[in-house]
Every structure is written in structure tokens, then in C-alpha cells.
């Protein structure tokens, strides 16, 4: 990953009549990184992506991809691959014909058989699109996005409908793309995937960024947690805690190591078993849930 900006958005505004979908949004995506753009429903994420991809014109502000306007298809389009939520392939074409057709339109060069192999659709090469399962159609969407190993790849809900093995295979392929130098922009409702794979995350709410940073930077904005159950009766806890609906105790803390040590020493000194003990930093989905309460 380098400091070179592949995507540079400055003071982006997008309006539909009197409705302001995106308000003064600025961010950069650096070469070689995996950037996750996440958002609550109606946050403006889709409108932002459509503008960066060149499908929509900004109301005001500046958007640059590879230093060019994304609306300049000749300069930009051949360098990016886009995996939409639904690509709308012709149902009468075969898998191989679909990849060859869409791949040819990108202006990039590749071998269809190679692309089918990396998305595990070789056995379906002669099958019509109309006969594919939902997961197979998603793999076909992915195949057309990565045809020719583009420098920039947009993945919009890439693992929806995929089984666990197919998800693992997709992420392995994304890893190889990154090794080859590709930059990845991800949108997903599977927050654990963003937490696991993203270098940085932009979290949108009401048309602008609520927060942006690495997973560690975002999760540090909320306290870490310690959860455990206790036999009854038990002596008073040495730290402040609340009782949850399942009977377990919840400790929220910005000093996880210190407070966990206190709780463990207290349990040892009192001969208590901490049942179903969990301890760790907050998760990205907790940060996401906190948006509406701030």
C-alpha cells in the first residue's frame, strides 16, 4: 500500500431536488488498500459509489479516479472492475459467453478459462445464466469484475448468497488481487468481513462521514467489554458492572487489561468460576449500532 490516492473525493454534494443525499463528503482511497465504505440505510453510500464509479454526476464538489474524472470512460473505465449487487446478465447466454462478452467490453485482456477457474465456474462454463443458482450468479458477477486484473475493483455486497467455502475462495482471490497491486473498495452488510479485511473504513450516516479510520481506531471509540456468569450467592464485584437479561454480568471499560486482571484476581481469591467468560475490544457492529444513539 502506498500514499498515492487512487480515489480522491473533495467536498462532494449530491442532491435530488430538495433532498441532499450526500453533504460535503471528502475522503481518499490509497493505492493498494482495501477500503470499506459502510453506512446506515439512506446514508448516501450508494449515491457516493455511483458517482465515484462514473455512473452519476456530482451536484458539486470534485471526484477524481486515477487523477481523472470518473465520467471520462476512455481514461478510467478500462482500469476499474465493478461488481454490482445485480449485473443483469442475459439469461440465454452461457457462463463462458457472459464472461467473454463483459470482459471484452472492459478493454482489458484475459483468458476466459482462467477467470472461470479462479471463481470456480469451470464446470458451469456451458450452462445458461438462467440455470445458475443465486450463489453461482454472484460468482459470475465477481468473474466479470476481476477480468483482466483491474487496478481498482469495486465489490458491492460480494458475498451475498455465497456459502462459507465460496466466501473463503472469494476473499482468497481478493488477496491475490491485492498482491498484484489492485486497490479494493468494499461495501457490505457483513460487518465482520469489513472488520477482518479492511485497512480503513468510512462509516457514513445522513450523507456524510460519521467516522473514518482503521478498525482499531473505530472500535477504540467505545469501551471494551468483559462478560461472565457467576454462581449465587457471590460477593460484591470489584468493578462496576450491569446485569444482562441472560443473567451474566457486563463490565464496560477503557482499561481492559487492568480491569480484567482485577476481576480474575477477585474470582481466584474467592474461589469462583467465571462462567462463559468473554473479554475483548468492542466489535465494529457495536460502533455501527451506536450511530443512532449519538
Automatic annotation (TrEMBL):
InterPro entries to which the protein is assigned, alphabetical: AAA+_ATPase, ABC_transporter-like_ATP-bd, ABC_transporter-like_CS, ABC_transporter_ATP-binding, P-loop_NTPase
Alphabetized Pfam families for the sequence: ABC_tran
PROSITE patterns with a match to the protein in the record: ABC_TRANSPORTER_1 (PS00211), ABC_TRANSPORTER_2 (PS50893)
Record keywords, A-Z: Antibiotic resistance, ATP-binding, Nucleotide-binding, Transport
SUPFAM superfamilies, sorted: P-loop containing nucleoside triphosphate hydrolases (SSF52540)
Domain of life: Bacteria
Subcellular location: Cell membrane
Boundaries of every ABC transporter domain copy: 7-231
Membrane disposition: Peripheral membrane protein
Gene3D superfamilies cross-referenced by the UniProt entry: P-loop containing nucleotide triphosphate hydrolases
Predominant localisation class: membrane
Keyword Transport: yes
UniProt entry tagged with the keyword ATP-binding: yes
Coiled coil segments of this chain: none
MF annotations from Gene Ontology: ATP binding
Record protein name field: ABC transporter ATP-binding protein
Amino acid at each position: 500500500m502506498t500514499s498515492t490516492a487512487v480515489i480522491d473525493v473533495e467536498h462532494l454534494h449530491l442532491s435530488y431536488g430538495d433532498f441532499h443525499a450526500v453533504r460535503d463528503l471528502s475522503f481518499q482511497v490509497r493505492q493498494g488498500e482495501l477500503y470499506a465504505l459502510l453506512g446506515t440505510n439512506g446514508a448516501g453510500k450508494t449515491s457516493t459509489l455511483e458517482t465515484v464509479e462514473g455512473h452519476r454526476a456530482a451536484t458539486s464538489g470534485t471526484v477524481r479516479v486515477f487523477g481523472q474524472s470518473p465520467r471520462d470512460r476512455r481514461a478510467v473505465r478500462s482500469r476499474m472492475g465493478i461488481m454490482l449487487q445485480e449485473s443483469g446478465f442475459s439469461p440465454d447466454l452461457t457462463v463462458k459467453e457472459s464472461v467473454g462478452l463483459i470482459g471484452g467490453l472492459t478493454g482489458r485482456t484475459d483468458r476466459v478459462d482462467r477467470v472461470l477457474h479462479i471463481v470456480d465456474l469451470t464446470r458451469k462454463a456451458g450452462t445458461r445464466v438462467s440455470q445458475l443458482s443465486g450463489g453461482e450468479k454472484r460468482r459470475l458477477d465477481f468473474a466479470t469484475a476481476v477480468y483482466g486484473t483491474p487496478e481498482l475493483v469495486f465489490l458491492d455486497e460480494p458475498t451475498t448468497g455465497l456459502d462459507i467455502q465460496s466466501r473463503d475462495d472469494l476473499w482468497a482471490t481478493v488477496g491475490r488481487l491485492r498482491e498484484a497491486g489492485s486497490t479494493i473498495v468494499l461495501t457490505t452488510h457483513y460487518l465482520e468481513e469489513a472488520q477482518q479485511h479492511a485497512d480503513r473504513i468510512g462509516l457514513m450516516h445522513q450523507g456524510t462521514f460519521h467516522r473514518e479510520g482503521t478498525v482499531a481506531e473505530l472500535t477504540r471509540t467505545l469501551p471494551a467489554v468483559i462478560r461472565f456468569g457467576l454462581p449465587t450467592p457471590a460477593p460484591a464485584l470489584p468493578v462496576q458492572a450491569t446485569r444482562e437479561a441472560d443473567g451474566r454480568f457486563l463490565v464496560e471499560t477503557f482499561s481492559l487489561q487492568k480491569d480484567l486482571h482485577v476481576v480474575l484476581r477477585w474470582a481466584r481469591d474467592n474461589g469462583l468460576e467465571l462462567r462463559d467468560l468473554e473479554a475483548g475490544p468492542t466489535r465494529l457492529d457495536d460502533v455501527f449500532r451506536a450511530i443512532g444513539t449519538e
